[in-house]
Amino acid sequence: MTTDRPVSHRGAAVLGLVLFVAMAAAALAIDVPRTTYGLKSDEATYIMAALSAAYDGDLQYERKDLERFAGIYHSGPDGIFLKRGKVMRIRGTSAFPFVRILKREDPNRNRLYFGKAMAYSVMVAPFVRFFGVNGILLFHAVLIALSGVCAYLFLAAQRTPSSAAALTTAFLGASILPVYGVFLMPEIFNFTLVLTAYFLWLYKEVRSDSVLARPWTTLAAAVILGLGTYSKPLPTAVLVAPIVLLAWWRRRWVHGFVAGFVAVVVACALFGLNAVVTGEFNYQGGDRKTFYASFPFDAPDGTGTWERRGGMVTTDTSTPQEVLRSEDAPFRFAHNVEYFLIGRHFGFVPYFFPGVVAIVAWALSREARVQAWRLLAFGAVVAAALGLLILLPWTWSGGGGPPGNRYFFTAYPVLLFLIPPGVSLTPGVLAWVGGALFTAKMLINPFVAAKFPFLPMEKGPARRLPVELTMANDLPVRLAQPLRGHVQYRTDPGVLLYHLDQNSWPPEPNGMWISGSGRSEIIMRTAFPVQYVQFEAESPVPTVITISLGSTPVRVALQPKKVAYFNVPASGVRGFGDYNYLLVTHSTEGFVPHLLEPGNMDYRNLGAQLRFRPVTPTEASGGTTLPK
To answer: Could you tell me the residue ranges of all domains in the chain?
Structure first.
């Protein structure tokens, strides 16, 4: 439906100004290294690249880059990705494809480049030049304000100003966006590229008399999505398709072809520019390493060889084929769909709830749900999600432990354009209430949520959601200190534990303690299938413990100084070369060791101590009995 009634831009201007002033003031006032609690995820690469672009005018890693970074952060750039360049030559040939690319090693073996896409670092460089690392947060403030203006303008063309404002603020504030806003990485940049591109493309559908109701806006959208495809190929490349398909649906064949061609040319040009700078089209390919603790050129004389430092990083292209060909593929895919939608750490519903409201509102609108451009937008989001699940079955959330789905976050803004015309405030209120259930504690202090992403999931409604068992190594708990994730169970290298909360503790010589103050959840990851688990449990106080492993819970009453023996049936999911089970425990009573033995300085609230041994189906069929 096209709405031709006049729309005031005052609301959008005020909204953008408020967003920008509030965030810009905070961005410029904080001590970035301290307030953000140091480095997170891939920040080191992007920060150093931005500093290099801002102060040196290049994207080459040198000794002075390391000195500059250490002077700001008082530490090394842990987690930085670097790569050696190549010398590339392109020659014409008489055979198809009539081009031959020749590459050889760079004669200067100490010439290194940053191993990430350069678009974000180049764009943020002017802000860094004038405001230092605070300029990165200021850049994010500008991007979020721009997103707010575009979202409001689009919604205000179909809804009342109050309804548009409620939905806009919910879409930005009642989702995972505030957390990604303080990550010094290109997540907000990619989000804004997609939102701005779709705004330029679709604003003419809701406001036909606007200055943006011109063919050039579609081409501008294609240019922006081409830039986004270079920065984040998946899922951004999928989001170009609706622009082409809508034009073809309306029999504008040339217009659709040109739009798609422009997006491809821009993306290819940027990959080509990457080749000009580094000698490699793929910024993540070639001789690429990640570094922790020690770095190239960190020796006093400016040396520090590439060969002696860092770990090689490669892309396993066989994984998607293995997943698709495996006999477990349907079950694995079904689990991934469940985790994608309602997963505790990366789920769509808890961390993109305004998007859920947008989909429901669109589906309930008779007129909106049959509009071709909305159908294509929704189809692109679904295709992007499926692409992530199929091509990245073990890392579709982005890896590294950040909350929410870092990869899908790029496609999230497309859902804004599904929201149908209306005057009610109800969708905006529902989006705020539903989203706040899971993200309110993150919104209060996004810096804490970004650095300690495991904390918000330990309490609240999120604990009711299923745990992404097949992605144990990517869960936020891997970032917890002291170590709570990927902990070997006693002397058994075939059993790894991931303590998802603070109601249990890593194994000690005599066993593993569970708390007396609440339910504990632990992922048990094994190299073999498990039929059931043999348990031994004891406690110095009378208590009743309940234990389950994805199957029927077992309830056991413990008496002081007596060891209880029992079996717990196990049911889990198969991962990539492993098997994963959710161990849930609860003790009705607890004790504080210091209060029982004054000489003991342990103030933990302990419930019971457990020892266990997983039993395989083969071993179980052999009639193995419990030790007495």
So the answer is: 10-448, 481-621
The kind and range of the H/E element at 73 are: helix 63-73
Neighbours of 230 (CB within 10 A): 23
The two three-digit tokens of residue 224, written as one number: 């922006």
CA 514/CA 172 separation, integer angstroms: 39
CB count within 10 Å of CB 275 equals 19
Q: How many CB atoms lie within 10 A of CB 45?
A: 24
Q: Which of 624, 623, 173, 177 is nearest to 428 (CA)?
A: 173
Q: Please report, as a single letter, which amino acid is at residue 282.
A: N
Please say whether the beta carbons of 475 and 449 come within 8 A: no
* Biggest distance spanned by C-alpha atoms of the chain: 87
Q: Which residue has the tokens 């303008």?
A: 153
Strands (E), 33-170: 60-61, 80-84, 86-92, 99-105, 112-114
| Main-chain dihedrals φ then ψ at residue 223, nearest 5 degrees | -60, -45
Question: According to the model, what pLDDT value does residue 94 have?
Answer: 65
Q: Please say if the pLDDT value at position 124 is more than 80.
A: yes
Nearest Cα residue to 587 out of 498, 483, 517: 517
CA distances from 456 to 79, 164, 210, 403, 506 (A): 24, 29, 43, 9, 20
Instruction: Identify the band that residue 20 occupies on the pLDDT scale cut at 50, 70 and 90.
Output: confident
Q: What angle do CA 433, 439, 440 make, to 5 degrees?
A: 70
Q: What is the pLDDT of residues 68-105, one digit of tens each?
A: 999 999 999 999 999 988 776 676 676 666 566 767 77
Look up the CATH number of domain 481-621. 2.60.120
